[in-house]
Amino acid sequence: MNKIYISIEKLVVNSENPRFEPVKNQQAAMDLMLNEAGKEVLNLAEDIAKHGLNPSKSLMVVEIEKDQFLPLEGNRRVVALKLLHNPELATDKKFVESFKTLKKEHGTQIPTQMECAIFPDKESAFRWVNLEHTGENKGVGVLRWDSEQRQRFIAQYAGKKPSRPIQLFDFADQNNLDHEKVDPTTLDRIVATPLVREQIGISFPQGLLDLEKPKNKIIRNLRKIFTAMSKKDFKVGDVYTDTHRKDWIKNILGISDKNKGAEETPQGAKAKGCPLDGNWITHQLYSAYPIKNRIKSILKELKDLNPRQKPNICATSLRVLLELVVYVFLKEKKKIKAMIDQEKQGVIEENKKRSNKREWNKDWSPNFQRTLDYMATEDDIITDPLERKALKTFISKKSNEPFLLELNQFIHNPDYEPSPEMVIEIWNKLGKLIFKTILSG
């Protein structure tokens, strides 16, 4: 593996960028990236135009023909630079004009080449690309800073503490909370009121964000606040005075004056407390699940059923629910792609030792057992070692609590009669553990 500087013209946009579906050629790859992530590409291009490329990051490439190099990662950087030098490559006119403006303002300082690490083939680079994009990998990969660590870095190197809204947005980004339409100045006004911070469950000792309530509860509270602030009918006047803010936060979080600090039970709820209270699906869990998809629909329907009255439909639905929610969660975390890459690499390594080569199934996807095994072993998904150990116990075939075997029988064995007690026990132990991870992750 050699490191050299390669001109932008010799770098080919990867038409099989793992972030997107494969396309036919370079132009289609650029069009797709602008269509799917145009704002991010434009932001990156502006940063490169103003500050240059990150000197600590080499591009990993392979030579596909003489003087033509294919990036195995870093495609956004390549696209951003190509468009900075030639804005007409963007077929969307709004992007053409934006890149023309950047080129006009910063043209003389836009990099014309990139430092690249050249690998002999894709297989040689696989390990390093995989480590770059698949998380901590038990300390071997990139150890991401959490919100507190990033804030500490800013305080140490910039000599000042980030504003409260920036810290809250940082926390929101870590927990997939949308804040695009939230005005930071207005948010700062809202959290300036002590009662608001108390009800959310946060504080700012020494100017740095601290969590005073369970993380999943704070996430739910902020989600409600951001949603309310993003609505068209929201006005700064709603939170202009301290009294306004106190009344507003009570309304948004459902705080009862008779029971200050506790959230009111939503209309129609059958259980009080956190979403995981009770021996079955509750209205609170349906309300807390953040994505409007089939999972949310199943939760909504199951909350009105009783496993003691309808064990078969509850057992079957529970099995489907848990498999879906784990798959969607891992997919959003980019872990399904990592698992597919690992499996593919395993086939490649296996075929090196076999005369009868095993063909890779391009439609391969991890089953329920594999996704649960992955959750139980990756400490960046379930950070509590005791919870990881519990999950391993619940899904182990040798365990005294073989819940996964029972769940499979719920949908695959026509002669099996699920007992209400087993359905409830699996929900209380395995189901709640999974959803706790989903809601706090």
Task: Kindly describe this structure.
The protein is of the alpha+beta class. Helix content is 53%, strand content 8%. It has 18 helices and eight strands. The protein is globular. Residues 258-272 have low confidence and may be disordered.
Helix tally equals 18
Ranges where pLDDT stays below 50 over 5 or more residues in a row are 258-272
Q: Sheet bearing the most strands, described? A: 4 strands, mixed
- Distance from N terminus to C terminus (CA atoms, Å) equals 37 Å
Mean pLDDT: 86
| Spatial shape | globular
Work out the radius of gyration: 25 Å
Along the chain, the helix and strand elements come as: EHEEHHEHHHHHEEHHEEHHHHHHHH
Which range does the strand content fall in?
A: 5-15%
Number of strand elements: 8
Give the helix proportion (percent range). Answer: 40-55%
Q: How are strands sequenced across the largest beta sheet?
A: 1-4-2-3
Derived from helix and strand composition plus strand pairing, the structural class reads alpha+beta
Describe the structure concisely.
With 441 residues, the chain is of the alpha+beta class. 53% of the residues lie in helices and 8% in strands. The longest helix has 26 residues, at 26-51.
